[in-house]
Q: What sequence folds into this?
């Protein structure tokens, strides 16, 4: 049976002592559990970092997605690494999209052409990572390094694009 321990405001600052009744049968020493009300340094650090991550959760979206993709690649590698051969042709999809866009709407400036080519190259690198990670294992040093570099590049691009995007404010009437 569990007993509720009632504490007053003066007692709440002190650690609580809970006595567990003696066990029948063998002579076992009495167990005393002391529970502190004050959080430890580790609990405070975890709570502070959790609040910070929650407050800035939108700015860390690419890193979260990259971690999920890495774990998914690891699971697929463990189950069936030959899946990489079926996913490898998808790495050319961003290039095909880039070619179709440049044929439909030719760029008016060299800057636009450069940005489109860079976006296609970055997307191709990200999409090509998945079959490579599935085939060689996400924990392989070269694959892990490429994942870290791609994640860093995506995170930086996300943060820079967030700074460059216009912010809209609601007008008061």
A:
């Amino acid at each position: 049976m569990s007993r509720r321990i009632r504490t007053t405001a003066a007692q709440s600052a002190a650690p609580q002592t809970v006595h567990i009744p003696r066990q029948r049968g063998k002579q076992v020493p009495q167990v005393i559990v002391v529970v502190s009300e004050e959080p430890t340094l580790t609990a405070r650090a975890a709570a502070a970092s959790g609040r910070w991550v929650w407050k800035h959760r939108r700015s860390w979206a690419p890193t979260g997605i990259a971690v999920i993709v890495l774990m998914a690649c690891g699971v697929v590698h463990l189950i069936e690494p030959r899946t990489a051969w079926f996913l490898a042709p998808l790495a050319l999809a961003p290039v095909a999209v880039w070619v179709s866009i440049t044929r439909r709407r030719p760029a008016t400036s060299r800057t636009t052409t450069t940005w489109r080519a860079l976006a296609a190259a970055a997307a191709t690198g990200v999409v090509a990572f998945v079959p490579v990670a599935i085939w060689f294992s996400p924990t392989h040093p070269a694959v892990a390094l490429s994942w870290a570099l791609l994640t860093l590049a995506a995170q930086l691009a996300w943060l820079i694009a967030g700074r460059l995007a216009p912010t809209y404010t609601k007008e008061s009437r």
Remarks:
- The first strand starts at residue 16 and ends at 19.
